[in-house]
Write a structure and sequence with these properties.
Number of strands: 30
Strand content: 15-25%
Helix content: 25-40%
Distance between the termini: 53 Å
Radius of gyration: 27 Å
Strand order of the largest sheet: 1-2-3-4-5-6-9
Structural class: alpha/beta
Length: 811
């Protein structure tokens, strides 16, 4: 079939749906009126042409290198030529750049080829929307690998995350991509879950503010941001990937949903992806309460809902709530999923037969198609002058790992590293220290930069299928970076052990190196992978929170040499470090800091970089007793002598040390009482009391003293970064609306309840020197989507003769 001329109709006028001068809604309705039922259904599907490619000849022909669950199974049964897939039109093209190592020019050429086929083989010639992964950067060969999302959380810096996302979006747009399948807005509920590295942390407000910032950045570049995984995925039983979620609706509404709501209201996200999991027995992909009543009805979301990969057929094969993929498609469409990814299985032409038999209202088809066509109009895909070649016009000049990208990646990495304990050893240079003459560098993460990268970074996500291609980007290891950072030191290296193999054969050499050195830096932690091929990542869940394999044993033997031991943990989740802390001279946590992670870690160790990262998750003391995060009601946060298990973390949420010191004090609260629809301000003075410039993250927490349901002992309600020169101070003022105390009541309606609210300000969930109380007065209020979701913060230099410079990055 040859598509009609896209430029005009037979009488020389533009088709209404091709006319950019008309309102978007009018163009969509005009196109809908021209479409057959089969053409409408065609827009609801997708095609993953890259999934037809055979695995590298050196790789075993099983699921060892799947990049999506059950990919090998569906690839074997779902090969449909693009010409056939596009016969009635096509909604999405899946991962043209993210399936195999291709250059920007090669990927752009493939986009052009596929778009030509889509346009040529369908009657109306509607182009497809191209989507790609982009969590730690554009997931394609040679593109910048930024820090993992858990490292964004450690920055507590929304503005920086927004700049990163904008850079990612610009690179994607230059090569013809339209939609990015990020950010992940799941809130950590169990540290054992493999995908903790993809989350922003364990607090809904932190995740919401940084997630909304990512969305703003990506959308500013013209890329549709996709919020995932909606909703509850991170709370699976026993932290098993895809496991059932034993969560009540109140916990879902208070801990899980606000991140998505905020990213829509404050970020402007235009797409949402469903979770694989079921919550209390109802799979998200078939839940009209979640996908329609809440998302559309309560929040007013007008974008598209796309299925996670094969989530539609999973309703039949995994959840067993549908007889087959076709029935699964009916359930998913009825619930509110608009487009099936990555290939069309449940949203096929059988839907037309069901409509004609009266089994499925055509209005459901129109509802979904209208949403997708709206986005295609917004993206310019339906303009008469659109061409496949024009859509990739920037591919010839784009540098996917440009110096500007790398500088941004380094800034993120440096700000994300958390100094847990400097002891008397760090920094290695300065303050009268000359650095070690002989340094032993040990550990499986010391000389492998893959450990800096998450499971959705291209080197760990796709390149295991292509072992001869290296990383595709320059990424110095910690060992490389330390040799550059400490050029006068004699540095010896021993790996010691693997990430997870039970092999002690390298212990003796590592211990000998440590014993013969002035200092030992041990770099331990994770190597991300997929579906059991790593120690962190999708499908790489942990039985407990011991460092993987024999790494803790190695650390204990290194410490026993008597040589001062600096432990650097490079990981995607927090590990229990109680036994390690007792023996280490210093502790540093680096959450998968990306391609610039090596120099960033070396800079923190030497003192060139002033550490300012804060923990987005707690560091546990012991490896068992999970799950647990800081957001606990009274009986979850203290044993009260009732249990022998102590839930107190080794290092609390929000904690991070520095090479200078800060003091937070002089609390001022504007009102002792405010109505339940009013607001008050909370102000403190923060002062740099040390000898170096540095940044502190001032944190506001609230606690409802007496409520109709149990409430967290404290919960983050605001934060801001403040940079101060030595001796300088600043006044930080939070404006707190009563809406920020809202919670889900016994009747499952969100309320602001009159009563006392404790106010805490400090530098972590446990270090809160400033404490006060405000009383909310008046009637109980019911609040909805229009409530205040963000706490504004203002930072001003404090009055006084000792003032130097200040700088703030506010949430």
């Amino acid at each position: 079939m040859t598509a009609p001329d896209r430029t005009d109709t037979a009488d020389g006028t533009l088709r209404a749906w091709q006319n950019p001068a008309l309102p978007v809604a009018d163009r969509v309705e005009a196109l809908l009126a021209e479409m057959t039922l089969e053409e409408k259904i065609g827009q609801l599907g997708s095609r993953w042409v890259g999934n037809d490619m055979q695995a590298h000849e050196e790789v075993e022909p099983d699921n060892a290198h799947n990049v999506a669950p059950m990919q090998d199974v569906f690839a074997a049964s779902g090969k449909v030529p693009i010409e056939e897939a596009a016969r009635h039109g096509l909604g999405h093209l899946t991962r043209v750049f993210g399936s195999a190592p291709v250059s920007a020019a090669e990927g752009a050429a493939e986009v052009v080829r596929l778009q030509r086929e889509v346009v040529k083989n369908s009657r109306l010639g509607i182009p497809a929307l191209v989507h790609e992964e982009c969590l730690t950067g554009f997931t394609t060969y040679g593109a910048t690998v930024y820090p993992a999302a858990i490292a964004w959380g450690a920055t507590f810096d929304p503005e920086l995350v927004e700049r990163m996302a904008a850079a990612i979006g610009r690179d994607m747009r230059a090569v013809g991509a339209h939609q990015g399948l990020s950010p992940v807005l799941d809130v950590v509920r169990d540290y054992r879950w493999g995908r903790v590295e993809e989350t922003i942390g364990e607090d809904p407000y932190l995740v919401a503010t940084l997630g909304a910032a990512y969305v703003r950045g990506l959308e500013s570049a013209g890329i549709i941001a996709t919020l995932k995984h909606f909703a509850g995925y991170s709370a699976s039983r026993a932290a098993r990937n895809h496991g059932p979620v034993p969560m009540g609706r109140r916990e879902l509404m208070d801990m899980i949903l606000p991140t998505f709501e905020t990213a829509i209201a404050e970020g402007g996200a235009r797409s949402v992806m469903n979770s694989y999991a079921d919550v209390d027995g109802v799979p998200a992909a078939a839940d009209p309460w979640l996908l329609t009543e809440v998302l559309r009805g309560e929040w007013g979301f007008t974008g598209t809902v796309v299925s996670d990969y094969w989530a539609v057929p999973f309703l039949a094969t995994m959840h067993r709530v549908a007889a087959d993929a076709e029935e699964a498609g009916v359930q998913a469409l009825s619930a509110g999923i608009d487009v099936e990814l990555p290939d069309t299985l449940g949203f096929g032409q059988h839907l037309a037969e069901r409509v004609r038999r009266g089994e499925l209202p055509e209005e459901l088809i129109d509802r979904a198609v209208r949403r997708l066509l709206t986005q295609k109009v917004q993206l310019g895909l339906l303009d008469a002058d659109w061409t496949p070649e024009g859509s990739v016009a920037g591919a010839d000049t784009v540098d996917l790992d440009s110096p500007a990208n790398r500088a941004l990646a380094r800034e993120l990495a440096e700000r994300s590293i958390v100094l847990l304990e400097p002891g008397t050893t760090l920094p290695l240079l300065g303050e009268g220290r000359q650095g070690p003459r002989r340094l032993a560098v040990v550990g499986p993460c010391a000389d492998d930069p893959r450990t800096f990268m998450g499971c959705y970074a291209f080197p760990n996500h796709v390149l295991p299928r292509h072992p001869g291609l290296g990383l595709g980007v320059e990424a110095p290891s910690v060992l490389d970076a330390l040799r550059s950072e400490l050029p006068d030191a004699e540095i010896v290296y021993e790996r010691g052990c693997d990430w997870r193999e039970e092999d002690r054969s390298g212990f003796a050499a590592a211990v000998a190196a440590a014993r013969e050195s002035d200092l030992c830096v041990a770099v331990v932690g994770d190597l991300a992978g997929l579906f059991g091929q790593g120690t962190s990542g999708e499908g790489c869940d942990a039985e407990d929170l011991r460092l993987p394999g024999l790494q803790e044993d190695l650390l204990l033997e290194l410490a026993a040499t008597g040589t001062p031991l600096v432990v650097v943990v490079v990981s995607g989740r927090p590990y229990a470090l109680g036994r390690v802390r007792e023996r280490a001279a210093a502790l540093v946590q680096a959450f998968m800091p990306g391609e610039e992670g090596g120099p960033a870690i070396a800079g923190v160790l030497s003192g060139r970089v002033q550490p300012s990262g804060k923990l987005p998750v707690q560091i546990p003391r012991t490896p068992g007793g999970q799950p647990g995060t800081y957001l606990q009601p009274p009986l979850g946060s203290d044993s009260h002598g009732i249990s022998n298990l102590d839930p107190t973390p080794l290092f609390p949420f929000g904690y991070g040390a520095s090479y200078t010191t800060f003091e937070v004090g002089e609390l001022e609260i504007s009102h002792a009482e405010v109505p339940t629809d009013g607001e008050f301000t909370v102000s403190v003075r923060v002062r740099n009391t040390g000898g170096r410039a540095g940044e502190e993250v001032v944190q506001l927490y609230l606690h409802d003293v007496l409520a109709q349901v149990t409430r967290p002992v404290r919960q983050l309600a605001g934060f801001t970064r403040v940079r101060l020169e030595p001796g300088a101070s600043a006044r930080v003022t939070f404006t707190v609306h009563a809406d920020r105390t809202a919670f889900t009541g016994r009747d499952l309606r969100r309320i602001v309840e009159p009563g006392d609210i404790d106010v805490f300000v400090g530098t972590s969930a446990s270090d809160l020197p400033c404490r006060g109380r405000v009383r909310l007065t008046g009637p109980l209020r019911h609040v909805g989507h229009g409530r205040r979701l963000i706490t504004p913060v203002e930072v001003r230099p404090a009055a006084g003769p000792d003032q130097g410079g200040t700088h703030a990055a506010t949430s």
